[in-house]
Specification:
With about 450 residues, the protein is an alpha+beta fold. It has 8 helices and 11 strands. The strands form 2 sheets. The chain has a 9-stranded mixed barrel. A two-stranded antiparallel ribbon has the order 10-11. The longest helix has 15 residues.
């Protein structure tokens, strides 16, 4: 095999990335990296080619109701009981993999149906929710094979080491100095309507996937957690971390809101690449170039053997392409998606997309997720983040200080005015606090099966 020098690798990556420039504004389009890789650049079918699964009204747009008012779409035979009429969703496990159990609604449609997002309307919920909840389209879905990883690695470590070896075979990794580091990547990247990272920018948005497709990615315990959340979302009993100013968790970085509400601010140096983003709280990722993980703890890490909200990240350069490995993540939840454990690890590849003149127009972000506790096999999310500006122009990053005004009072998220005196129960923040509230206040009489392990632990 021909071994290219770091300079040649940089030129190859630049020219190859330019081939995607005309498509940078669309969802999951992949760059042509110029060679067949063992672990990056595999093509993926764009989620934006798929139609919305279920009804949603948000910020004044997007609405796709198959049947409203509790009526059933033509040609669909409803189940005798579904998530909107059940008395105990735990007993319905045999029905969980049937789209009709959720009235063929996506995760986003379910959470939006009771006003969880701005613009949610009574038209979706009907006049007697949850009984009159609308139906989605049972014949729509995003293929599962486009969600699972195409690379065949069992662990993030195997994946990262294979990419490192591949990069060495091509003359790398690139040992950048301040004179050679691709600092032009530094800048602000975000979402535009219908474009990169947008509402249908990836399957992870929760708009184009049926619920059973998401469940098929998960182990039985984590399937149960998704159904639990969906039941309570449909019943109007949401408990989102952001509404209480709790941490939003590692996977919140991939939610469309994380690029809709504030750009990703990327700062490149030879030693560290920092990515700042946020919704209700701040997301900070520091990728330490050239470092190695300590391997004697529960999971690979850089610091103490304690999970971090956004993990520890190491990485290396292949020309102007950044490859990273993140571990030591605190398990948490991502509403309308699924919970993840503290065993989650990722391999991520950041590829600049350039126009014919070599100017960066977008940043392709390919991420593969490994979580042996939550996932039955690794999954992949690909998105293209549109470049807004360099760091020398535009609005600076707005640091977020979340001030809590909503509190769970008797298990219900309740807005509070300044000066109110309320009785407040401090939750166990490392024991699924949202589930603690549901199980204490809204699941009386339900028969929850005993878990195979302590579900009140992310260890």
């Amino acid at each position: 095999m021909h071994r290219s020098t770091p300079t040649q690798a940089l030129r190859l990556a630049t020219l190859s990335a330019a081939m995607l420039a005309a498509h940078a504004a669309f969802g999951q389009a992949m760059p042509d990296i110029g060679f067949d890789s063992v672990g990056r650049g595999a093509p993926i079918e764009d989620a934006q080619q798929y139609t919305l699964v279920g009804p949603i009204q948000m910020f004044g747009f997007l609405d796709d109701i198959a049947a409203s008012g509790g009526n059933v779409p033509a040609g669909v035979e409803p189940l005798a009981v579904d998530i909107y009429t059940t008395k105990d969703f735990y007993k319905d496990e045999a029905l969980w993999m049937d789209p009709r159990y959720y009235r063929c609604n996506s995760g986003m449609a379910i959470e939006n149906s009771r006003g969880a997002n701005p613009g949610g309307t009574a038209e979706i919920a009907g006049d007697d929710p949850p009984r009159t909840m609308s139906w989605g389209h049972c014949d729509r879905d995003y293929p599962r094979e486009n969600i699972i990883s195409p690379y065949g690695f069992a662990t993030a470590q195997e994946h990262y080491e294979a990419l490192m070896e591949e990069t060495r075979s091509r003359g790398g990794p690139s040992e950048h100095t301040y004179a050679t580091v691709p600092g032009e990547i530094s800048g602000r990247y975000s979402w535009t309507e219908g474009g990169p990272g947008g509402l249908r920018g990836t399957w992870y948005s929760g708009l184009v996937t049926q619920m059973p497709t998401i469940l098929s990615l998960l182990t039985p315990e984590y399937q149960r957690r998704v159904v639990q959340e969906s039941y309570h979302q449909g019943a109007g009993q949401s408990h989102w971390p952001s509404q209480y100013c709790w941490p939003e968790g590692f996977m919140r970085r991939w939610h469309f809101a994380s690029t809709l509400l504030q750009p990703h601010t990327v700062m490149v140096t030879p030693d560290v690449v920092q990515i700042m983003a946020g919704v209700a709280t701040n997301f900070v990722t520091n990728i330490h170039i050239g470092r190695e993980f300590v391997m004697d703890g529960q999971v690979p890490r850089l610091g103490q053997d304690v999970p971090r909200w956004y993990g520890d990240s190491i990485g290396f350069w292949d020309g102007d392409v950044l490859i990273s490995w993140t571990s030591n993540i605190q398990g948490w939840m991502a509403h309308s998606a699924f919970e993840f454990s503290s065993k989650m690890q990722t391999v991520e590849i950041y590829t600049p997309v350039r126009d014919a003149g070599g100017t960066i127009t977008a940043l392709n972000h390919e991420a593969v997720f490994y979580d042996p506790e939550a996932l039955v096999e690794p999954i992949r999310i690909v998105r293209n983040l549109e470049r807004n500006s360099s760091l020398r122009e535009g609005d600076p990053y707005t640091y977020i200080e979340c001030v809590q005004s909503i509190y769970p009072v008797s298990g219900v998220a309740t807005p509070q005015s300044p000066g109110n005196i309320i009785e407040y129960e401090v939750p166990d923040m490392y024991g699924r606090p949202w589930a603690q509230l549901w199980e204490k206040y809204q699941e009386e009489g339900m028969e929850k099966p005993a878990p195979a392990q302590d579900i009140f632990s992310f260890e």
